[in-house]
TrEMBL record:
Residues 601-625 are annotated as: Disordered. The lineage of its organism: Bacteria, Bacillati, Actinomycetota, Actinomycetes, Propionibacteriales. Keywords: Coiled coil. The keyword Plastid does not apply. Pfam families: SbcC_Walker_B. It comes from the Bacteria. Residues 308-342, 910-937, 970-1004 form a coiled coil. This is Uncharacterized protein (TIGR02680 family).
Amino acid sequence: MTDARVDGAAWLDAARTGGLPTAQLTRWQPLRVGIVNLWEYDEAEFWFADGRLVLRGGNGAGKTKVLELTTLMLMRGEIGASILDPFGSQHRTMRFNLLPTGEADDPRELADAGLGYAWAEFGRIGDQGEAEYFTCGLGASARRGTGAAPVQTWQLITRHRIGSALELTHSRRPLNETELKKLPGVQVYRSATQYRAHLAHELFGMEIDAYNNLTELLKQLRKPKLGERLNPASLADTLRDALPPIAAEEIDHLADGWDRLEQLRSKVDTTKQAAHALAHYTRHSWRPWASIVVRSRADELSRTTSQLERTTDLKNRADAELAEATRQVGQVTRELDRVRVDKDDREVEYRELLKSQAYTDAVAAAGRVETLRSALTTVAQHRGSVNERHSRTVLAVEQSQAVVTAAAAEAAAVAERESTQAETVTDLAARVGLAAATERHLPDQDIAGLRVAIDRRFERFEHHEQLYADLERAVAEAEASEGRVARSAARRAEAVSEVAERLVHLESAVDDLRVNLRNWAHDLTAAPTTDEQVEHWCDLVAELTAMGSSTSSPRAAVRQHFDGHREKAQRRIAVVEARREPLRAEKSRLEADIDRLRSISENAPPDPVTWSRRNRPEPSAGRGAPFWKCVNPRAWLTPADLDVLEAALAAAGILDAWITPSGSLVDADGNEPFDVQLRARAMAGAGLNDVLEPTSTDGVPVDVVAAVLAGFGWFADRASAPEDGTWLSGDGCWSVGSLTGRAAPAQSASYLGTAAREAARLRAIDAANAQLHRVDEDLTLIAAELILLASQLELLETEYTALPSEQPVIEAARAFAVSTELSGRAEREHATEVARHGTIQAEADDKRASLAEHAARFGFPMEGLQTYARALNHCRQAVLELSSLIELSKSRQDALHAAESTAEDRGIELEEVVQELEKLTTERRQVRIQLDIAEASLQSDHHDMLDRADRLAERLTQLGTSMTRLGDELTEARVTVASAKAVLAQHEERRDAAETARNEALTAWWAVADADLLEPLGLSVPERRVVETGRESARAARRALRDVTESAAEERAWRRCLTGLQELRQQLLPTRDMRIDDDGPVPLVLVLTDATLGWQPPQPASDALANAVQELEERYNTEQRDVLATLLESNFIEYLKERLDYAEGTFLDINRQLAKHPTGQGHVVRLERVPDPADPEAVLVVKALSHGYAQLGADRQEQVRNFLSRKIDAARADARAEGASDWKEQLASALDYRRWLRIELQFRGGDGGTWRRFDNASHGSKSGGEKVVLLSQPLFAAAVVAYNAAGRGAPRWIWLDEAMTGVDASVKESFMGLTVEFDLDVMLTAHDEWCTYRTVPAVAIYDLARDKLLPGVDIDSYLWLGKNLTQVERALPIAVAGVE
């Protein structure tokens, strides 16, 4: 037993009196750890004794929580899941340690905020002999309601001692970060990196990388139940995982370089995709449209050119028709001139005749007569018309008198109505507040002023009505709003009730599922569970209530548990089935052997196996037989003698030797066969004939057999036989030539004699039957085992199927979340409605006040507005009617005056007509007298002169007619000329239009050329731009391109072009773009592939992109070579080699430590690091890097680079498949060199034998204690190596979480003894472990207990000093935890 290095009495005294433990060693050693206001520990402190501390207690007592808060978390200064829980579970979080959950299984009192500390103290004896102390700690705070906001943490380092010169609380309240910073001698950190660097340098005396490696190893050691988990495979994995991982900066550097390369690759890919897309667009969208446009423009140019030619021909025809019409006009003009001359001559003659005196006298006499006749007729006609006028005038006078009478009556009636209406207006105006207006305007009949007053009153009343309507709307809106408030309040209350109901339902569903899980797990038989597993599943039920954030579920955990049992059963089935197949084959063989043995009469010896023998002839061939078949034993031989004789014959090679009928050694062909033969040879003395009787069989005569028997001597025993020769003896000795020997029978005689052969056959059948029976029994057992395993699998499925459903909890949680959301929404809606109702009600009050003010000001009523409106309308209508009557009265007076004036005018007119009638009667009488006198004075020569004048007048009339006809013809001819000119002008206009259209089509054609549409279609662009070259290039286009048969083809193609453009643009953006330039005659599709090239048409842009793809691929290849050379060759590969070398050196150091510490039985273990053969490429790479990259040949270097490149590409692919935005985690996993290694454990016995592999098979053959010791040694040795690499004064503590669970006391004693041998400080948790072993010189023990319904932990403390266990009375510094 090792003596304790701690003063037990001083330790106990300090613990009992409230003192502090003191430093004992010259290296740092943990003295105590503490917790302040975390989880259910208000203020707890746990002491080490000689660097050892045991925390014992049942499940949930809080022992693992102490380990969680005071070990790796303090060494790393971090609170991540992988720090608090070595398996990285999200179940343990710092927020949970700070803030109570309020759930039934959390007895802590709810709080809005939490703040706490965890700390560890180390002590040592300095170089000057004085005690030194070092305390590190971590503070954390969190607030409720901050959602996913992170927990705030800070770290502290001090040389002061907590409880002496330093307190982390004030009035039992933990200090916050600001208060802590004000304390002298306390260094507070906000960076975990800086904090670790300080710890690594000052406490451990090592570089930060080595410190990180150390904490990783300690993390592996802290994994729960190390003793149960320890086997060669898990040990190898633990040691491998404890190797330093690839540094994050190396991963970052490599990832960044690869990202740059990937970005370039992506650029190549996107450019290539853009090039393919643009080429596809150009070929399938733009080119078809361009073809249609070019063909359409070519068709248009051809059409307009043809139209111009047709209009030119029509214009020429119109020119000819105009010339003909002009000639016709000249001809008619000349004829008209001739007739005009003739007519002028006749006119002269007629005028001269008329000027002569004779004609004048004749005309005068005749004219006088005619004049008087006409005058008489005129007077008679005038007198008749005056008579008619007289009658009409008399009638008009009578009518005007009647009109005057009627007008006077109407004027009087209208005046009376006007007076009555004025009184009505006065009455109505008084009712509507217009009395003053009527008094002012009505006496003067100022209807306009009165109407203005009424209109103004109407305007004010309309405003009054508007105010009233506004008030009604406001009141209605207020009433509606009040209803909405009531309804929203009802909805809010209903939603709150629903939330409460859903919460009760959810809690009930959670409780039910937990109860059902426990009941279901209790009844499991095929997949039994532990209480811890069941409680873990029950804990996971809470995860189901977190909608959208749960990463695990009870069903998933149960499924994993069942999968383990299912896989175990399936593996067992596979093993059993593998055993069954050989047995089935053996059974078939045995059955075939039995059938064969039963079907034959004799059984030959087995064929030789070390040499090849011929196929012996069939018995029926008569060509010989084996020796055993040609003899029978003599009757006097006993069975025992026969057994010995057969054994000797078989050993000498005689028993199955061949005897030919002739005794010859050659066959029929003269060749010696591949066989063993006997030949007859005479021998003096007794022969085998004495014991064997020859028989004839298979063509071998008896004499030949007898001769063969005679060739072998027979003696009773070896003593009586000669030294050499060919003989056999009764004691089993034999001699053949220079060979001799002795044989003992291994079985009864089976070949010599028919009886022996039959007995042997029966024995073989019995043996085969016995073996067959054993095989059947084995197959029956296997079948039963398979049935049992199948039933176990079926039971597994049945039990798993009976797993209580999570759906009620999920549905209840979903319903609760929905109801919570609806409740919040209802609350917000209610608040909105209340605020809105207040606004609406205030607005209604304002409207009511405005209405009252307006009513008081202008005398309008507050109610009955419709009645008032009707009265106001009646007043307005009465005024309108009064206005109409006034106007009507005026018009009637005017009509009366007009009638009177007309009657007066008609009387005057009648007097004038009477006078004129009398005058005309006198005039007619006088004219009649004058006519009679003129007719009496007319002579006969006067008649001739008048006849000649009549003939000349007739001739002039004819000539005038001719001139009129010719004038019409001239007019018609001139019209024809004008028409021809108009037609010509029209054709000229059409030709001009056709020429313009042709020119426009030509311009459009040249626009197509300018738009670069011709060359992409394989058409040449004319160098000279004239009509003929345009027509020729258009004809070429029409020959080359398909006809456009549909008028909408171009529009449809353009739509496809636009649609394709939008799709293509999405692929080109953001570095490239497309646009439409439709300012010109032809819309241009322009592509921007490179800013230096500017906007280009699709075809040259497509060519430019194709060139860019080629350039980028060349650049990518160059960059890839550079990246591979820079990142992989010169940097990362060398770094990998350093890591592999470090691993090799670490295992060498571990092996040195292991060699120094053999087990109690003298066994020694060692570790071998070899490349993992499961990955052949990794094997080659690891072996290659063991020699250094620079020393490798070019092929090996390329192999290493390709291997790493594939790993990197696989990491990127995994990240993409997982949807991860950052692929560094996948890259670190892919390049984790530790996965390329396999750690083998070897051991050597205490007798100094050879090293043997310590695998699962050899592990299973060891005793429990021996296994734990052998497997624990490498872990402790690894810790020793890590600490030996640290500074001389570094602490050497390790943390073990229920590491000795499941092993017996002797093993635990050895286990703890290892920690003492390796000089390791230990902090250990256990369910019921005291560690009071003779191998443990001293240890502080804390027995923890906790009531799940009450907050806090009860603690009893003990001290073991190698022989005695002493309970320590609880003093305040030892432990204050929760509620006492």
